[in-house]
Amino acid sequence: MLSSIKQTKISTAIHYAHTHAETESFLLSDLARDTLLAHDVTLESFQQATGLANFYWETTYYQHPYHRRSLQQALAEAEGYLFFMHGWTGSRRIWEKLPIQLAVKNKRLVCFNLDVNGFGNSPFLEETPSAEQCSPAALISAVDHWLRAINLWPAQSAHETQPFYLFIGHSMSGAALFFKDITGWENENYGFYALAPALFCNDSQRRAFFKTMGLVGVNLPPSLNAIKNSLAPHVIEILGNGASPAVKNEHLRIYSQTTFGTIAQVIYALGVSADMPHRTDWSRFRVALGHKDKIVNLANTLDLLEELNFTSDQVKVMLGDHYFFSFGEDSPASHGQNRQCLIDDIQLFCRQLAPKAAKVDQNHYNNEYNVHKV
């Protein structure tokens, strides 16, 4: 997994010092430049498949203070990979310290914090991408293309245990999890945790609102760009009312730097995505909702989950709004409790997934990672 990536050759590899954790950042274009992608993948083929110009992520793993290890070693020893995906006008920063906290608490987890769907450092090629490229299904499909590109999936045999994959998505990314294509995942061990998923299949009022807002935005002339900027504080206040100042500021930053075509098309895509997710088994899913969420209607979402045959032990309702897991100055006290509850819940989910990891040949593992060890 990622065994071909040689850290010293990646100019954008940035190291952040945390207590017992290390974070490195990567751009897909830099790996492509250094010919470190999967043998059948190029940056151009990734762009053609996803509509994205680039793809950015940060990788966080436990780092022993005295016996330092490389990312390759961390991946080789990992029992599971966690993938964090943000919502509309967000970035990997909306998760704050959550990936770091989980990496420190479990030395055998590797956390991947992604910029997705045209936001952050993963922009679309076009200023106004198509609605199909911005849809929840396209979002999670792009993540699958990225996993293939960096050789993180399908799981390879060069590993002591076959690691599990846990996808954690908020808002639009939470909705995207419901549309993941599981073709090729039959022999993988994986799970999904959707936080406040913006899934409006049974919510015609919200679909109409987002569709209308998206259409207005797509057709807004560049000369009226000032209107877009003047709306930003109001939009962000609705989106992240109880979130920390850091999360609100990040939304404002991403909103201001993202083309209005992307902003509008993603909203429009959420509005027109009325198809019910097609799965027969939802046992791999967990969902957490905020009881005062102004974006995702609690009653409608619970009705939808019941229609999809979710069970009560798969769903949590927490006191809070759309960012019920973000806590800072002026946030409700319940948000701080929710963050700890979420950490505990993710750890429990990881423990449930970990025992299912399949054993593979130890000699193959040693040979593969000794060759590529940094």
Secondary structure layout plus pairing:
Elements: E1 16-18, E2 21-27, H1 28-33, H2 43-50, E3 56-62, H3 71-77, E4 80-85, H4 98-105, E5 109-114, H5 131-134, H6 136-149, E6 164-170, H7 172-177, E7 190-195, H8 204-218, H9 225-239, H10 245-257, H11 260-272, E8 285-290, H12 298-307, E9 315-318, H13 333-353, H14 362-372
Parallel strand pairs: 4-5, 4-6, 6-7, 7-8, 8-9
Antiparallel strand pairs: 1-2, 2-3, 3-5
Helix pairs in contact: 8-11, 9-10
Our Rg estimate from Cα atoms comes to 20 Å
Beta percentage is 5-15%
Poorly predicted sequence stretches spanning 5 or more consecutive residues? 1-17, 358-374
- Tally of helical runs: 14
Give average pLDDT, whole number: 86
Ends: how far apart? 14 Å
Largest sheet: 9 strands, mixed
- Label the structural class: alpha/beta
Label the CATH architecture. Answer: 3-Layer(aba) Sandwich
